Amino acid sequence: MANVKVAVRVRPPSQKEVRTAVPLILDVKEKSIAIRNLKQQRLKFAAPNSSVAEFAFDRCYSSIDPNAPDYASQETLFNELGNQVLDAAFIGFNASLLAYGQTGSGKTYTMVGTPGIFSRIKSECKSSTSYKVEISFLEIYNEQVRDLLAGRVQKRTSALRVREHPKKGPYVQGLSRHVVPTCSHIAELIEQGIANRTTAATYVHDASSRSHAIFTIHFTQANLQENLPCEVISKLNLVDLAGSERADPNFCRTRIMEGANINRSLVTLGNVISALAENSMLSTSCVGSQHVNLWRDNISDTISQAPPATSGYSLSSISGRRSSHPCYVPYRDSVLTRLLKDSLGGNAKTIVLATISPSSSSFSETMSTLRYAARAKSIVNRPRVNEDPNVRIIRELRQEVERLKDLLRNSGPKVLNPPPNNLIEMLHNSDTKDGKTTIGCSQGSVDLDIVLEPPSIEEFHCTVENQAGVVTLIPKPGSMCSINGRPILHPCQMNHGDILVLGENYTFHFNNPVEAKKSRNPPILLQHIQKNPPGFLELSEDSRVIDLSPNR
Ligand code: ADP
Ligand code: MG
Q: Where does the Kinesin motor domain start and stop, copy by copy (predicted)?
């Protein structure tokens, strides 16, 4: 489990802001941002600190003044945030970097400099691993998904469907994927996609992105592990959201419609973040009503600019209630949140980058963005390495063997074999003892091959002898041994399928290896079927029986 990381970047004042000498209201530190409310400051009877609000984040970047010592350039952001995303991808996690903020606050500016995966591949390249990079680029415009890289194959105007794969998560049906062999190819495709994006002039930004854009890198690493071909596939989502702004009644109908749809998905995104944050707080049960109120204010800010909610999802049901049940998370209320399901609360390591303007003219939007971002910090994701299931099983088995070895080492001196590297070695490297395997409990001083736990197991309990495939149980007088429910007092031959009980707690199923081989079963001599977790007695090629039971 990993919390969503939240970073904030403050852009430099725009030319217009410089020209009109708009005051700057932000004080940016490495991990916090203080914002001044100039209107409140002017009030005569305002309390001394009531005009300043402070927010803490994982990282804050000031790009206000290029000459300042703490100036954060594109390179700084790439080195810190971009590299975190790429590191996660190289390990095999899905990763997402989401830029959120008011129109003209620097989302697109920051995101377009992000991909740099090829330079990393060059530096990280191992000769044993091969890499494949495929990219896709889409926009969500007026709640419809369009392929920005479809070229002439698919008309850019046709909308694509969002579907959900039970294991791989949400995906867009028919979205083109482009294999990119070199770094220059990726840059070319990004430029092509950006040129195809829907932009328009708004009152804050002449070329505002009117759509949400998701640039996805499908990154496959293939190599050999345990002599098995293994693929680790990770998906990197770089998301440039459209900015929200108040609908200007002087704009044409298309612009107002666009704004409504942008706000609808941003409100849904807010609802999703809110529900997830509330759920994670429920599980940690450290909620303060102050947080909830702050967040409710924020949603109200956004909603005041948005059309009436169409989903019937009431605000109070999201942020106002306190219940012991987890909230419903309304992913399906917008295309954007459906596609970002894995990035928010799912299988991905996610960074939210909030971009803001430093000027007083953007006070309310900046406040809203900061509250949004502060809330996103409490979302908990569940990233996992997307590795081959076979390789995972082998690794887990190895870990289990290591655990058993540790148990054996700590449980006393009755371990005869030196700790082998794996089961196959364990079977092949053991000493030959003429097919005789001694079994007893660990308290005695007898040299035993298999040590079982008392009570009801004698110090030297019995011997299992294997001569050319004929296996005989030789009980020590007085020890509790039975085959198929019949007590055994004298040497007795065991047949394929017999149930052997030693003491009161150990029950084994006996497979004759010769017959097992004939029926193509693995050469398991005695399968331990009663103790939990189940264990095995296995027969090595030199006829010794080896106990692999976890709780012997
Ligand atoms: P958004 O995508 O949030 O609507 P843009 O990224 O298009 O905003 O940025 C708006 C304008 O501000 C652009 O002209 C861009 O060059 C400028 N800008 C944004 N952030 C920065 C920055 N950190 N440094 C310099 N210029 C910036
Ligand atoms: Mg933009």
A: 3-379
